Automatic annotation (TrEMBL):
Coiled-coil positions: none
Gene designation: hydA
Protein name (record): Dihydropyrimidinase
Enzyme class label: hydrolase
Keywords of this entry: Hydrolase, Metal-binding
Entry EC number(s): 3.5.2.2
Domain Amidohydrolase-related, chain residue ranges per copy: 50-437
Top-level taxon in the UniProt lineage: Bacteria
Cofactor: Zn(2+)
Cross-referenced CDD domains: D-HYD (cd01314)
Family per record: Belongs to the metallo-dependent hydrolases superfamily. Hydantoinase/dihydropyrimidinase family.
Record-linked Pfam families: Amidohydro_1
Molecular-function GO terms, alphabetical: dihydropyrimidinase activity
């Protein structure tokens, strides 16, 4: 299986240059000008287009059992939607129930993920603590290619990790050469604010952001950063949505602390006016945590991405259809939290980032694949176009336009948070593990073609 991508501008995080890319099997075997290809090679003409590393979405939840239901995209439909949008690798989450053995949850998620059409790898959540968790973290790192652990500081009475668990798990992560990550929101504050709102009779989706103001997120971000500082661990903060959390990261980094931040495509371009809609279905469809914020926060997130204090863009892809969201009719605390985006992230970040001059094409590559590959130890297998890297490539037409809509998306859930947004800059071809899986609207995702990507532990500090 040989594919040659001819005549494009190859964009890596460090530079952009004219050249051809030759793929053989699942790898890139040559990069250079005027490459020869065997007669039977698939030829992709990339004239006038950019040729970039396939996107890595470091935060998705396919088929997630959550809040009494299961998210609508499974590992096949979710990864397939990603391929259609130029994303060739997802990082999903194994989330054990409190008291569930980590290895049991690990086996369940690995089973569900077998049908993935694109490559996948897992962060494992630490939702509780005892000696078995300590031991299983070791097994996961040493034997199963896990090098990141997730901690939910929110979702009290469910998957929330208390401070004791955070400290023990961060320490254990350091010992193993794994990186701790956090969903930063003060779960106790969220819970108390939710109860107050319900008591006042404010029960609709508009109450959701009122129960999770920026300060609630910033408190947890500061706490996680402080814990990491005391223990000497790095920390990665998922879905940073507000200026105050970004300030915490910026402060810590200025003092030399190794803190990383992730921005979601949704948080970058959608504001909190969606919760004021009189259409309760519409407002509910936007319920995710942290919630969408006011425009001043969006500006801060873009500045963070450009200035280097935010490192990755993700989606937190976790779709629920209207019927699922309706479980929270009359009680916003029961609306399954989550929104989509795995299919749209690359185009949304290009359109709102590169077309506006906020990001250069190389910076775009950095925040859509390279940084995630480096932070989570998949580089240079992923996140770069170079000899020896996986043949995960997106051919990008900077002039092509598309209007994003639930009517034309591949993802399930029947809703699109980017509905009606016209983007300029779209994938024309996606090559995943050397196979042309998407060509100008034609998706040829194959169930089970995706591979689990082992991520070795980091060398001891
Ligand atoms: O609302 C969200 N983000 N749902 C998915 C779970 C999480 O918090 O990441
Ligand atoms: Zn073609
Ligand atoms: Zn989260
Ligand atoms: Zn999430």
């Amino acid at each position: 299986m040989t594919t040659i991508i001819r005549g494009g501008t190859i964009v890596n995080a460090d530079r952009a240059f004219r050249g051809d890319v030759l793929c053989y099997g699942d790898s890139i075997v040559a990069v250079g000008e005027n490459l020869e290809a065997p007669v039977n090679a698939t030829v992709i003409d990339a004239g006038g287009q950019y040729v970039m590393p396939g996107g890595i979405d470091p935060h998705t939840h396919m088929q997630l059992p959550f809040m009494g239901t299961v998210s609508a995209d499974d590992f096949f439909t979710g990864t397939a939607a990603g391929l259609a949008g130029g994303t060739t690798t997802i990082m999903d989450f194994v989330i054990p129930d409190p008291k569930q053995p980590l290895m049991e949850a690990w086996r369940a998620w690995r089973g569900w993920a077998k049908k993935s059409a694109g490559d996948y790898t897992f962060h494992v959540a630490v939702t509780w603590w005892d000696d078995s968790v300590h031991a299983d973290m070791g097994t996961l790192v040493r034997e199963h290619g896990v090098n990141s652990f997730k901690h939910f500081m929110a979702y009290k009475n469910a998957i929330m990790a208390d401070d004791g668990t955070l400290v023990k798990s961060f320490r254990r992560s350091l010992e193993l050469g794994a990186i701790p990550t956090v969903h930063a929101e003060n779960g106790e504050l969220v819970y108390q604010l939710q109860q107050e709102l319900l008591q006042k009779g404010i029960t609709g989706a508009r109450a959701h952001p009122l129960s999770r103001p920026p300060e609630v997120e910033a408190e947890a971000a500061n706490r996680a950063i402080a814990i990491a500082n005391v223990l000497g661990t790095p920390v990665y903060i998922v879905h940073v949505s507000c200026a105050e959390s970004l300030e915490a990261i910026t402060r810590a980094r200025a003092k030399g602390q190794r803190v990383y931040g992730e921005a979601l495509a949704g948080h970058l371009v959608i504001d909190d006016s969606v919760y004021a809609s009189a259409d309760e279905d519409f407002a509910r469809a936007h319920v995710m945590s942290p919630p969408f914020r006011s425009p001043r926060h969006q500006l801060a997130l873009w500045q963070g991405l450009r200035g280097g204090n935010l490192h990755t863009t993700a989606t937190d892809h976790c779709t629920f259809c209207a019927e699922q969201k309706a479980a929270g009719a009359g009680d916003f605390t029961r609306i399954p939290n989550g929104c989509g985006g795995v299919e749209e992230r690359m185009a949304v970040v290009w359109d709102a980032g590169v077309n506006t001059g906020t990001l250069t094409p190389s910076e775009f590559v950095r925040v859509t694949s390279t940084n995630a590959a480096q932070i989570f130890n998949m580089y240079p297998r992923k996140g770069v176009i170079a000899v020896g890297a996986d043949a995960d490539i997106v051919v990008w037409d900077p002039h092509g336009t598309r209007t994003l809509s639930s009517r034309t998306q591949f993802a399930k859930g029947g809703f699109n948070v980017f509905e009606g947004r016209t983007v300029r800059g779209i994938p024309t071809h996606t090559v995943a593990a050397g196979k042309l899986v998407f060509e100008r609207g034609d998706l040829r995702a194959q169930e089970g073609a995706g591979r689990h990507i082992d991520r070795p532990a980091f060398a001891p500090l």
